[in-house]
Design brief:
single chain; 335 residues; alpha/beta; TIM Barrel; 8-stranded parallel beta barrel; two-stranded antiparallel ribbon; 14 helices; 38% helix; disordered N terminus
Length: 335
């Protein structure tokens, strides 16, 4: 077994703390166990949730009950005060591009050491233009277009997020059949896009996919040539994490980007089923210790090599994203 096959191990460091809140949405009282656990994690480890606006996290993240709209607007500082939540996803930009001022407003609400994972607009990452119910209607002429990506995503995010930028993720939606039959063309489009983009002032550019047809040596070579990272997608549309490791090994060493989106037991189209089952996301109803243990091992090795880890978890992964973050942090520290 080579060193890179022995993915991985790390040493403890003290975390940076988030800004205190004196009014508005207040953070839940910090548990002594969470503070002690956070102190055992490397500052390279940035764990968080896919977003921050869930009222059901009362007592886990928030003190008191707040509406989803209130949390969306003003809950970020309270979220970032949790010692284990050192990252968060911004998914709303997937539906419409965000301005630099919007990114800056988020960056100003968190402490140094906090990082954002941001999805690129679907305008660039979806090969189809879709109706409101998600049905593909016609080909998207701006799919993987470098100029659109630069103007509507890269430049505003670089300017607004600055040092809080963790990972900018091009999550490529499932490809229609004709494109899947011509994967070489899709590789060429992605290669041209990534080559056209300037390097980020902090963090990384990453690519997440929804079709296993991407997961080839050619894809790894493309990412290596452009300096982009593979975003590990923990989603039933893709093979399990262990089967995605060859891509990580081919790109070693380098930062880790991972998004744990949906528990495999729900199937590839199980978001609605998971949402109904998990209710207000207050309990870990479907723990997945195997995925958690493997992900923790990769995080330990990456951080131990002095590389950053940007990992965000959805409520649909195990039932409650804050509890999943706590369990993952424990697995990383205990390894």
């Amino acid at each position: 077994m080579t060193d890179q096959d022995d993915l991985f191990g790390t040493a403890p460091h003290a975390p940076e703390t988030a800004k205190p809140r004196t009014r508005g949405v207040q953070p839940a009282p910090v548990l002594a166990d969470d503070a002690a656990l956070a102190a055992r994690l490397s500052p390279h480890v940035h764990l968080g949730t896919s977003t921050w606006s869930y009222p059901g996290w009362q007592g886990l993240v928030w003190a008191g009950r707040h509406s989803e709209s209130t949390l969306s607007r003003t809950g970020l500082p309270a979220y970032a005060a949790h010692p284990l939540l050192r990252a968060v996803g911004i998914d709303r930009g997937f539906y419409r591009p965000l301005a630099a001022s919007e990114f800056q407003r988020y960056a100003e609400q968190v402490a140094p050491g906090f990082r954002f994972t941001v999805k690129a607009p679907s305008l660039v990452t979806d090969a189809l233009l879709r109706s409101e119910d998600g049905r593909g209607q016609q080909p998207n002429p701006l799919f993987l277009d470098p100029t659109t990506a630069l103007h509507d995503f890269i430049e505003p995010a670089y300017e607004g997020l600055g040092a809080t930028l963790g990972a900018l993720v091009f999550q490529i939606s499932p490809l229609p059949g004709p494109r899947l039959a011509r994967m070489n063309e899709q590789f060429d489009l992605l290669h041209a896009l990534l080559l056209a983009l300037p390097r980020p002032p902090a963090g990384v550019l990453a690519v997440e996919v929804r079709d296993a047809a991407w997961l080839t040596p050619d894809f790894a070579a493309l990412l290596r040539d452009t300096g982009a990272r593979y975003c590990v997608g923990l989603h039933p549309k893709l093979p399990p994490l262990t089967e995605q490791l060859p891509l990580l090994r081919a790109l070693w060493p380098g930062p880790l980007v991972a998004r744990w989106n949906l528990n495999r037991l729900h199937g590839a189209y199980g978001y609605e089923e998971a949402e109904k089952k998990y209710g207000e996301f207050t309990e870990m109803l479907d723990p997945d210790p195997q995925t958690r243990a493997e992900l923790a091992r990769i995080i330990r090795g990456t951080a131990g090599a002095g590389q950053d880890c940007f990992v965000t978890i959805s409520n649909k992964a195990e039932g409650s994203a804050p509890l999943s973050v706590r369990a993952l942090a424990q697995a990383v520290a205990d390894g």
